[in-house]
Amino acid sequence: MIISSATTVQNDFTKSAPSFICFLIPSTYKHNVDEVMVAYKGTKAGTLCQYIANKPDKWGFKLFCRASSSGIIHDLLLYQGASTLFNVALPEKEQGLLLGAKVETTLRKIITQPSLSVVFCDNYFISFNLIQKLNANLGVKCICTVRPNHTGGATLMPDKELMKKGRGAFDHRSAEGVISSEMV
To answer: Which candidate in 23, 79, 127, 175 could, as Cys together with 5 as Cys, close a disulfide (CB 3.0–4.6 Å)?
Structure first.
């Protein structure tokens, strides 16, 4: 389920979705796509209640959200396992993406002025190929943390060599329009 200022969705969660006043506030050009835990320790949530060990609130509802630099969440998507994107029509080329990439592209499509926007995200949502596609198709710039095996053609100096150079050392590479950088 996507709750957004741009879309209206009618489904089972409509009863529990309050009227979000924050959707009326215009977003800035700096966006963040991340996951949020809404604390819940009850027993009536069924499979919607998730456990994530690294979060301050370990039990609760997992939401994927897009927030602006003003700190306001503008769009959110309730995690429901395999049926998370049940009401979203994805093009055929996006069907094969991993869940994080599907969420990222879905939340980015709602951005009103993508060519002026920058999206910040973590390594759960991104890969080298996805950055290229989003920039080419939507014109959205992306700043993110990427796992070493997801850098595509821009391989960086190994961490041990960079650590030997000391504090403040950095390495950067460019491949196919994407710049990768790493620093100590």
So the answer is: 23
Classify burial at 14, counting beta carbons within 10 Å of its beta carbon; exposed 0-12, middle 13-18, buried 19 or more: exposed
Structural domain count, the chain: 1
Domain span at residue 67?
2-111
**Does the model's pTM come out above 0.85?**
no
Within a domain: 34: yes
Q: Distance between CA 148 and CA 125 in Å, rounded?
A: 14
Crossing angle, helix 99-108 and helix 128-137, to 10 degrees?
A: 20
pLDDT averaged per 10 residues, the chain (length 184): 47 46 71 84 79 83 84 80 70 73 75 82 76 78 77 76 86 76 75
Let me know if residue 167 belongs to a domain: no
- What one-character DSSP code corresponds to residue 179? E
DSSP 25: S
